[in-house]
Amino acid sequence: MHTEYEEFENIEDMFMYMASAAPPMKNTMPINSYKGYVMAFIPLSPSTGETYLMIYATGSLEPGIYEFDVSSKSYKKVDGIERADKVYFICLTPKRNTLADSAIDTL
């Protein structure tokens, strides 16, 4: 497995990147808060699963749903997904993530 990296200064910048890279009409994206990083993995070679892009920022988030407002570049934890004009991130904190462990080891 090979991992490419894209590091951001803060979580807001990472969310901005992910919101702009999301396909139209997909306003819900999963992220992980794991070992001091908030991250997402995008397969760059979907057919073989050999190369991934790790998008990350240093920090942590509690598990839950985060509403991101692109215009103000801010996020907040919410109880549900309600607005089509916002982007939502579902944050999970896995007990173990071997893909993340491998990527973090090579940072």
Describe this structure in words.
It is a single chain. The protein is an alpha/beta fold and 107 residues long. The chain has one domain (2-105). Helix content is 18%, strand content 43%. The protein contains 2 helices and 7 strands, in the order βαββββββα. The protein is globular and about 35 Å long. The two termini are 14 Å apart.
Structure summarized in a few sentences:
With 107 residues, this protein is an alpha/beta fold. The protein has 2 helices and 7 strands. It starts with a strand and ends with a helix.
Write the layout of secondary structure elements.
Layout: E1 2-8, H1 11-21, E2 28-34, E3 37-43, E4 51-58, E5 64-69, E6 74-78, E7 87-92, H2 98-105
Parallel strand pairs: 1-4, 2-7
Antiparallel strand pairs: 2-3, 3-4, 5-6, 5-7
Which features would summarize this protein structure in a list?
alpha/beta, 18% helix, seven-stranded mixed beta sheet, single chain
